[in-house]
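PROTEIN FOLDING TASK:
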Amino acid sequence: MLNMIWSGKIIFAFLLILCFNSCSDIATNNQERIVIKPPVANCDIIPKPEYISADPGFFQLNSSVVIVVDDRFSTIQELNNEVEDLQNFAKNKLGFELEQNSKLSNNPTIFLSIIPYGLLADEAHKIRIDSNILTIEAMHPSGVARGLASFKQLALLNEFEANYFIPNVNITDTPEFQHRGLLLDCSRHFFSKEVILKYIDLLALYKMNVLHWHLTEDQGWRLAIDKHPKLTEVGAFRTEMDGSEYGGYYTKEDIKEIVAYATKKHIEIIPEIELPGHSQAAIAAYPYLSCTGNRVDVANDWGVFKEIYCAGNDSVFIFLEDVLTEVIELFPSKYIHIGGDEAPKVRWEECEKCQQRILDNNLKDEHELQSYFIKRIQTFLNSKGKQIIGWDEILEGGLADGAIVQSWRGMEGGKEAVKNGNQAIMSPTSHAYFDYDLKAIDLEKVYSFNPIPKGLTNAEEGLIIGGECNMWTEHVPDEKTLDSKVFPRILAMSEVLWSASDVKQKNYTEFNKRLQKHYTILDNYNVHYGEESVPMTYFLKPSQPGPYMTLYPYDSTIQLKYKLECESCDTNFIDYKKTFRISGNFHTKSPTL
């Protein structure tokens, strides 16, 4: 039961009744719907597979099952990570050991195979399950890993009295977009290594493949840099308004462990090193990086700050090259996100060095100076074999060739980028900002997202490489709040980016029915998930001696109960059935969830 408290001394409790469905509820390519017994099978995979069909019977998963790696077309070592991941899942989530055999035998078998034909994308895969053998095949280990994600879901969805009965199904699946990510801001608030590892597990489980890791900000520098130790000694900590100290950072050993874990899960970690703006923490550590050279504190408030890197000072570029050199050593991703957003130009307008840089390079204004700044950093990163991603502000003043634009201020930045021949990642505030509350972006709104804007040619559409959900953490101080913001909304985004970008092909009601079964999986992964939408709205009609109140639940599955708190009121909860009058000395305000 979810509780909602009014400060006006009215308490409402909401009982969410979850709807359950089985394989028989899924239309499988117009084939006959099948119910498998015993037990009742559940095929409610998220994201929804491209093709799934079910046959009678099931594969019983227990300690008698063995793992066999197909060595016909590849070496067994190619799938070592997948075997280890499968064994860890069985031990930690199901409670038993799975042994690996070198060859097929009479034991029930999970058969992992790399094949040289039949699938186009690296992450594409096929799953065939009958009562004695469960086969996952792909042309790349990442495809086997995505197949294992479906297997894990099927196992957890089909637990029956401490046994696991995986339905006999055939699945063929491939992603729509190559870039399916979560941006996690660890600068406004810091999250432990353990939280990052947990999120990597969850991204892999729901077939996301990118963790965009926001590591530097005005409010904190979170990455150890050997050549510039004050970045963490000073820049990683701030004095809060109440006088307390807040902060933290990741050591290089932390980073190496996290990156290695993500690599095994086929999750690409893209670090974001903000420039030229959102850099006050670095300037607090090294004041010479600013236009004024004045000492400043690490920011302890939210917003956009005028302290940015000085574009006219060559020592700034030397510093950034030092930083990025160490970043490159830690992160194998071919991408480095350089930010580029919300960089006020007031310091540059007043800086002699910056104005001289504009003159020396025949630049028109400070916007072109930012383009100069970005292109200079891009040239350095390109020389190291890296490609840059930047927020859509990098379009201003001229876009660098080869730069990928992440469009957040709506869809127009992405459209402009692809029309220029650049690739784009879509994460607009309208659908992808999970720091926004449910009144602005609820689960259904996320599910309605289409990363492909209207008005593009086929070639331009092909330059939209995917999307991200953005989790900024100004008001997200802990893991529980983080979980409640991200989940369950990220499950809708995972389906959008894997298999359901086209609005015409989507069925939110059907998706939501599948989702209900996944709350037990999220419980298993210690996720403190939030609501799907604002549970209810209300209407007050003034009258004497007291106003009338009408409650509107989010949907018909929500049962509302209420009670009035006052000295003469009944203390029992009352089933809400119709509009009622509030009488007595009450002062009502908007409810807080």
Summary: The chain has three domains: 2-16+542-581, 49-173, 179-524. The first strand starts at residue 2 and ends at 5. Confidence is low (pLDDT under 50) at residues 1-22, 24-37, 586-593. Residues 49-173 form a domain with the Chitobiase; domain 2 fold (CATH 3.30.379.10).
